[in-house]
Amino acid sequence: MEPVVNDNGVMKNTGITGASAARLRSRKVHRELNPETADALVRRLCHLLDAGDYFGRSSSLPPLEKIGKLFLATDEDQNQSEFNCAVSPKVRRQVPLLFQAMAGVMEERTGLMIQSTAEINGEGFGRGLLYSGRIILLLRSLRAGFPFPFISGEKMIRYGVEGIEEGLDVLKKYEEITSQHGLLSLEG
To answer: Alpha carbon 180 to chain centroid distance?
Structure first.
Protein backbone atom coordinates (compact mmCIF):
# COMPACT_ATOMS: atom_id res chain seq x y z
CA MET A 1 0.00 0.00 0.00
CA GLU A 2 1.32 3.46 -0.93
CA PRO A 3 2.23 5.78 1.94
CA VAL A 4 0.07 8.89 2.16
CA VAL A 5 1.53 12.42 2.16
CA ASN A 6 -0.08 14.92 4.54
CA ASP A 7 -0.70 18.66 3.89
CA ASN A 8 2.87 19.63 4.83
CA GLY A 9 4.39 17.39 2.15
CA VAL A 10 5.66 14.90 4.73
CA MET A 11 4.82 11.22 4.58
CA LYS A 12 2.95 10.09 7.64
CA ASN A 13 5.02 8.25 10.24
CA THR A 14 8.26 8.45 8.23
CA GLY A 15 9.52 12.04 8.21
CA ILE A 16 10.14 11.90 4.45
CA THR A 17 9.30 15.09 2.55
CA GLY A 18 6.92 15.13 -0.42
CA ALA A 19 9.67 15.49 -3.05
CA SER A 20 11.62 12.58 -1.57
CA ALA A 21 8.45 10.51 -1.40
CA ALA A 22 7.77 11.11 -5.09
CA ARG A 23 11.28 9.98 -5.96
CA LEU A 24 10.88 6.83 -3.85
CA ARG A 25 7.64 5.91 -5.61
CA SER A 26 8.87 6.68 -9.12
CA ARG A 27 12.25 4.97 -9.07
CA LYS A 28 12.98 1.33 -8.59
CA VAL A 29 15.59 0.89 -5.92
CA HIS A 30 18.58 -0.94 -7.36
CA ARG A 31 20.73 -2.87 -4.99
CA GLU A 32 24.46 -3.14 -5.51
CA LEU A 33 25.50 -5.70 -8.11
CA ASN A 34 27.83 -8.51 -7.16
CA PRO A 35 30.96 -7.85 -9.27
CA GLU A 36 31.92 -11.54 -9.33
CA THR A 37 28.52 -12.47 -10.74
CA ALA A 38 28.71 -9.66 -13.29
CA ASP A 39 32.17 -10.80 -14.43
CA ALA A 40 31.00 -14.41 -14.65
CA LEU A 41 27.99 -13.36 -16.74
CA VAL A 42 30.16 -11.35 -19.15
CA ARG A 43 32.64 -14.23 -19.45
CA ARG A 44 29.89 -16.80 -20.07
CA LEU A 45 28.16 -14.59 -22.63
CA CYS A 46 31.48 -14.10 -24.45
CA HIS A 47 31.94 -17.89 -24.59
CA LEU A 48 28.49 -18.25 -26.16
CA LEU A 49 29.21 -15.49 -28.66
CA ASP A 50 32.56 -17.09 -29.56
CA ALA A 51 30.78 -20.38 -30.22
CA GLY A 52 28.59 -18.65 -32.81
CA ASP A 53 31.47 -16.70 -34.37
CA TYR A 54 32.57 -19.47 -36.73
CA PHE A 55 35.41 -17.62 -38.39
CA GLY A 56 36.71 -15.92 -35.23
CA ARG A 57 36.31 -12.42 -36.61
CA SER A 58 35.65 -10.98 -33.15
CA SER A 59 37.96 -13.20 -31.12
CA SER A 60 40.55 -10.48 -30.55
CA LEU A 61 38.06 -7.95 -29.16
CA PRO A 62 37.85 -7.23 -25.42
CA PRO A 63 34.78 -8.79 -23.75
CA LEU A 64 32.58 -5.69 -23.46
CA GLU A 65 33.38 -4.60 -27.00
CA LYS A 66 32.59 -8.11 -28.27
CA ILE A 67 29.24 -8.02 -26.46
CA GLY A 68 28.54 -4.58 -27.90
CA LYS A 69 29.29 -5.70 -31.44
CA LEU A 70 27.74 -9.17 -31.50
CA PHE A 71 25.01 -9.04 -28.86
CA LEU A 72 23.64 -5.58 -28.14
CA ALA A 73 20.98 -4.16 -30.42
CA THR A 74 21.53 -0.97 -32.32
CA ASP A 75 19.26 2.06 -32.22
CA GLU A 76 17.86 0.92 -35.58
CA ASP A 77 16.90 -2.44 -34.08
CA GLN A 78 15.17 -0.69 -31.22
CA ASN A 79 13.35 1.72 -33.53
CA GLN A 80 12.21 -1.19 -35.73
CA SER A 81 10.82 -2.94 -32.66
CA GLU A 82 8.95 0.17 -31.54
CA PHE A 83 7.71 1.18 -35.00
CA ASN A 84 5.87 -1.86 -36.33
CA CYS A 85 5.58 -4.07 -33.22
CA ALA A 86 7.90 -6.65 -34.76
CA VAL A 87 11.20 -7.55 -33.17
CA SER A 88 14.36 -7.68 -35.22
CA PRO A 89 16.31 -10.93 -35.66
CA LYS A 90 19.11 -9.57 -33.46
CA VAL A 91 16.66 -9.02 -30.61
CA ARG A 92 15.19 -12.50 -31.07
CA ARG A 93 18.74 -13.82 -30.75
CA GLN A 94 19.42 -11.84 -27.55
CA VAL A 95 16.76 -13.57 -25.46
CA PRO A 96 17.99 -17.20 -25.56
CA LEU A 97 21.68 -16.21 -25.38
CA LEU A 98 21.21 -14.16 -22.23
CA PHE A 99 19.21 -16.89 -20.49
CA GLN A 100 21.81 -19.51 -21.51
CA ALA A 101 24.55 -17.32 -20.02
CA MET A 102 22.55 -16.88 -16.82
CA ALA A 103 22.04 -20.65 -16.55
CA GLY A 104 25.77 -21.23 -17.07
CA VAL A 105 26.70 -18.87 -14.24
CA MET A 106 24.19 -20.56 -11.93
CA GLU A 107 25.66 -23.95 -12.84
CA GLU A 108 29.13 -22.72 -11.89
CA ARG A 109 27.88 -21.41 -8.57
CA THR A 110 25.77 -24.40 -7.52
CA GLY A 111 27.28 -27.43 -9.21
CA LEU A 112 23.77 -28.42 -10.35
CA MET A 113 22.58 -28.73 -13.92
CA ILE A 114 20.59 -25.57 -14.69
CA GLN A 115 18.69 -25.48 -17.95
CA SER A 116 17.26 -22.56 -19.86
CA THR A 117 14.37 -22.21 -22.21
CA ALA A 118 13.69 -18.89 -23.87
CA GLU A 119 11.48 -17.95 -26.74
CA ILE A 120 10.15 -14.77 -28.25
CA ASN A 121 7.73 -14.56 -31.15
CA GLY A 122 7.71 -12.03 -33.97
CA GLU A 123 5.59 -9.59 -31.99
CA GLY A 124 7.87 -9.66 -28.95
CA PHE A 125 5.84 -11.87 -26.63
CA GLY A 126 7.46 -14.81 -24.95
CA ARG A 127 9.17 -16.05 -21.83
CA GLY A 128 12.52 -16.93 -20.37
CA LEU A 129 12.77 -19.83 -17.96
CA LEU A 130 15.61 -21.20 -15.84
CA TYR A 131 15.01 -24.52 -14.11
CA SER A 132 16.76 -27.41 -12.47
CA GLY A 133 14.92 -30.70 -12.58
CA ARG A 134 11.37 -29.88 -11.53
CA ILE A 135 12.24 -26.63 -9.78
CA ILE A 136 11.54 -23.38 -11.63
CA LEU A 137 14.24 -20.97 -10.54
CA LEU A 138 13.35 -17.98 -12.68
CA LEU A 139 10.43 -17.18 -14.96
CA ARG A 140 10.35 -13.90 -16.87
CA SER A 141 7.52 -12.96 -19.20
CA LEU A 142 8.28 -10.78 -22.18
CA ARG A 143 5.55 -8.38 -23.23
CA ALA A 144 6.18 -6.51 -26.46
CA GLY A 145 9.83 -7.52 -26.08
CA PHE A 146 10.33 -5.57 -22.84
CA PRO A 147 13.03 -5.29 -21.40
CA PHE A 148 14.65 -6.37 -24.66
CA PRO A 149 16.26 -5.04 -26.84
CA PHE A 150 19.28 -4.23 -24.74
CA ILE A 151 21.27 -1.42 -26.26
CA SER A 152 23.36 -0.80 -23.13
CA GLY A 153 25.78 -3.28 -21.64
CA GLU A 154 25.12 -1.99 -18.13
CA LYS A 155 21.38 -2.62 -18.35
CA MET A 156 21.95 -6.09 -19.76
CA ILE A 157 24.40 -6.96 -16.99
CA ARG A 158 22.03 -5.64 -14.31
CA TYR A 159 19.12 -7.67 -15.74
CA GLY A 160 21.25 -10.82 -15.89
CA VAL A 161 22.80 -10.48 -12.44
CA GLU A 162 19.44 -9.72 -10.80
CA GLY A 163 17.96 -12.79 -12.51
CA ILE A 164 20.85 -14.98 -11.37
CA GLU A 165 20.56 -13.78 -7.78
CA GLU A 166 16.78 -14.31 -7.81
CA GLY A 167 17.22 -17.86 -9.11
CA LEU A 168 19.89 -18.64 -6.52
CA ASP A 169 17.59 -17.32 -3.77
CA VAL A 170 14.83 -19.68 -4.94
CA LEU A 171 17.26 -22.58 -4.98
CA LYS A 172 18.46 -21.74 -1.48
CA LYS A 173 14.87 -21.57 -0.19
CA TYR A 174 14.11 -24.92 -1.86
CA GLU A 175 17.15 -26.53 -0.20
CA GLU A 176 16.05 -25.22 3.21
CA ILE A 177 12.54 -26.65 2.79
CA THR A 178 13.71 -30.06 1.60
CA SER A 179 16.32 -30.31 4.34
CA GLN A 180 13.58 -30.07 7.00
CA HIS A 181 10.88 -32.22 5.43
CA GLY A 182 12.74 -34.46 3.06
CA LEU A 183 12.80 -34.44 -0.70
CA LEU A 184 9.72 -36.63 -1.14
CA SER A 185 7.42 -34.19 0.67
CA LEU A 186 7.58 -31.77 -2.26
CA GLU A 187 7.24 -34.21 -5.12
CA GLY A 188 3.99 -34.25 -7.04
So the answer is: 31
Contact 166, 37 (CB under 8 A): no
Angstrom distance (rounded) from CA 141 to CA 156: 16
- Nearest-Å Rg of the Cα atoms of the chain is 20
The domains of the chain are located at 1-30, 35-186
**Measured over all CA atoms, what is the biggest interatomic distance in the chain, rounded to whole angstroms?**
66
CA–CA dist 122, 99 (Å, integer): 18
For residue 153, the model assigns a pLDDT of 83
Which is the CATH superfamily of the domain at 35-186?
Protein of unknown function DUF269 (1.10.3100.20)
Q: What is the pTM of this model?
A: 0.74
The residue-averaged pLDDT of 78-91 equals 67
Q: Which residues contact 168 (CB under 8 A, 6 or more apart)?
A: 106, 109, 110, 137
pLDDT at 63: 85
User: E strands, 14-164, where?
Assistant: 115-120, 126-132, 135-142
